[in-house]
Amino acid sequence: MIRAIDWEAFKELRGGEKREYFMRDGNIFHVVMAQQFDRPFLDYICDLTTKIRGIAKGNQGMLFLQSLLQTKRAMLYFVQPSTRTFLSFMSACQILGMRCSEVRDPTTSSEMKGETQEDTVRTFSSYVDLTIMRHVQERFAEKMAWLLNQTGRPVSVINAGSGKDQHPTQALLDIYTLHRSFENYGGIDGKAIAMIGDLLRGRTVRSLTYLLKNYDGVKIYFVAPRGLQMGEDLKDYLRENDVDFEESENLDEIIPLVDALYMTRIQDEYDQGDESKKIDYSKFHFTGDHLKLLKPNAIIMHPLPRRAEIRPEVDQDRRAMYWRQVRNGMWVRVALIAKIFLADREIMNY
Ligand code: CP
Predict the structure, then answer these.
(1) Are residues 218 and 172 in the same domain?
(2) Which residues are catalytic, by number?
(3) Measured in angstroms, how far is the CA atom of residue 2 from the centroid of ligand 1?
(4) What is the pLDDT of residues 298-329, one digit of tens each?
(5) Which residue, judged by its Cα, is nearest atom 1 of ligand 1?
(6) Angle at the Cα of 155 (from 135 to 206), degrees rounded to 5?
(7) Same domain, 182 and 310
(8) pLDDT in tens, 236-253
């Protein structure tokens, strides 16, 4: 039973109380923020993803997956640009047999006639079982999940990126990529991970940082230009959870110390003026020369899209994982949607 609560009070809920609000009968229902996920959930999603990839290798397996959610429909409401997240979610829905609708350009919706975003999302819920949303506003998906929980038709919400704030499903695919990469090297526990670039405005690094708290003995290096360092809220979160971290502006010094480098582009779409143009971002680019500094079993990640943060010559190195991340994203999203709709047991028993 969902408790009625106003938005201002809901925003202030912390930890478990808020997490409960995104669950239904003990199962995940809304995917809104990375803090929702605990270690058992992360381990399970990784196992489920690997199982799905195995099943999908054969035609019979693909037909089985397509039979699972044929009666379900999804809306992809993406009013901020996207290539990977949009296409991988649409592919994930299709792999599970779901039918999809989309709104990518709000000028084609009744928002242009003055309809509020709240009413727009509530309208979607009349037609679909799941709304996947990307929006420029921070906490947009969280607010829509709260809103739908107050209605008589609370369909699931997945946050596919909310402003500078969170990108929880990107973080899940990043965890899966780390998990697979370190499967034979002791797992993610105890690893040193560097996040590089615009950490202040990058939602992928924020969500991944939240998730890394679930692993023992992880050390995080935040490597960023002055003024674009990781936000104080995230650093406080790490301190509260006893996660070791260090800040730096020197990429060359950090590369030899880590097991994973997570490169990111400058998020200049959030500039107020021309502040990004004043930053020498080239010091935060990974070049072919940097490969010599990297540990033999370390990996290079990037959520993409990239500009010049990773030179194309690096792509051929076996430690470059960003194209695998793209592919992993689709399979992790299949696993997540299957979990939301309780199709995961059938998959695990296949
Ligand atoms: N990583 C990511 O979110 O990519 P898109 O913006 O292309 O969806």
Answers:
(1) yes
(2) 84-85, 113, 134, 167
(3) 32
(4) 999 999 999 999 999 999 999 999 999 999 99
(5) 303
(6) 40
(7) yes
(8) 999 999 999 999 999 999
